[in-house]
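Milestone M4 deliverable, item 7.
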Amino acid sequence: FNTYLQEGRQLKHDEYQIVQFYPEFKSQVLDLLQHLWKGNSAEHASHFDWKYTTNPHVSSPLGIVALNGSQVVGFRGYFPVRLKIDGRTDTITVLIPSDTCVHPHHRRKGLSVAMKNLASKEYAPKYPLYLSLSCNNKSFPGNLKMGFLPLEKKIYMTHYSLSGFIKYSLAKRKGQELPLEASPITFGRFGSFMVSRRPLPEQMAAVVAAQGTTGSNFSLLQNTRYFQWRFNSRKHKYVFYYLMKYEVMRAYVVMGVSLSNIRGYILDYAQGDNLAIKELLGCIIHAKHFDIISIYSYAVDNDLGTILSDLRFTLHNPISFLARILHGELPLLVRPIKKNVTESDFHIGGLDVRKVENWSLKPICSDAV
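Output delivered:
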């Protein structure tokens, strides 16, 4: 144990020591995360390994722990995401501040901030940016104090029916989680329309590559290796929709599924030729697998926006109205990792990271889906 403290940088914080995460801390971190994560210990271990250990964008888990003696009483994890600059071979890895948990007996002692300060020292030489895609009402004020800047509001475009909205609202009140097998989704191949529980990594990567680029933006690096890893999380339900021409994929949509199976969230999509996405989304709507289908507006460019409008997706609906009342309109946030930030730190590859037009983000970039 003392070897870990001697090898890595550490911060003293009252009676605590703030150090890097080491694999030997894992069991204690998992015990701690029971205060944050739902489910059983086996699910926690699997999810931790998926998020931090097998992530292809980093060689070892990125996290900071707070120690009280030899006991882990705090953890702050960082989810790495590899981005490319469209039209170039450059890539950067940004960090999404993820699971932050302090044991109830050790809260209100500044441990979260202390862990963040050590993370800045450790990670700034290698990683340029923090990107927060899933802040909530509790974390948002603290993030602003830490120097995060709003990038774009998270607002859903939604296709719905009134009866679907009522069913979804009633199911949400009950909070009951149903397995995917209890949904009305029929899996299989139906002409050129294919519904699957599994990703097809090589073909999905080929569709992404065939899209080309429309400008110089930061976008998610989605190669075969990425697709082989990304959908192994047991905490979420996914359905994969493919539009095929013979055995070649023309387009795909990945749908996240709500606890009740009533609402589908468009998390990822790509098309190899124009309007294939419109045909595929039309098939999904016609199949009536979901009463409500939503996608964050930040993931919608002008071409997709036109398609969604034609398919009767709208920003102004009772679902979005209710979400604004309950949660407000929380934004995406960005900040250079360095503690003392200069103007040049906001410019990467000639792009200003504070301008939303320099980003092409999808919901699947987040660790929360």
